[in-house]
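2024-03-11 09:14:02 DEBUG pipeline.ingest accepted 1 chain
2024-03-11 09:14:02 DEBUG pipeline.ingest length=158
2024-03-11 09:14:03 DEBUG pipeline.predict start
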Amino acid sequence: TWKRDEKELVDQTLYHTEDYGSDYYYDGGYGGGDYSDLTWVYLKSSMHGKVLDVSGANQSPGAELNMWPQKGGNENANQLFYIDDSTQTIRSRLNDFCLDINSDGYVVLNPYDGSEGQLWTLNGPKIEHITTGKVLDIYDGDSWDGAKLCVYDYSGAE
C-alpha cells in the first residue's frame, strides 16, 4: 500500500523522505509559477522500496511511469512529486505534468487538463483514483526495475 506518515508519504506506500521545496522554482511549461513552498515526495513501494520514476526522464506528454531504485542528488527530478490539493492531482517535479490514466489502464504523465483520469486522493493507506475508486498499484505485482504502474481494486494489503 501507499502509506502516509508525518515525515514520509509512498505498492499502494508514499514516503516523504526529503523536503526539496526550498531549492526549486518552476517557471515554464504547462503549470508555471513559483513552487518554492511545495513539499516534494518520493512515491515509494512498501513491497520493495523502489520509487515511482518518469521513465528516461521523458518530458513529453504520455511519458511512462515505472518503478526504479531511488536516486539522490541532482538526478532525482523524475522521481519527485507533489500533491496538489486544489486540483486533486499528483504532479511531477520534472515538468509539472500530472499522473493520468491512459486508455490501456496504465498510469502516465500528461499536462494538466482537469480530466477525470488525473484526479487522485490520499485515502488512508492508499493513493486512490477518485473517479474509479481503484488504487495506484504496480502492474502484476512485479518487483523488477521498470515495472509499470496501473490502477487496480484495493486488496487490503499493506
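2024-03-11 09:14:41 DEBUG pipeline.report The longest strand covers residues 63-68.
2024-03-11 09:14:41 DEBUG pipeline.predict end
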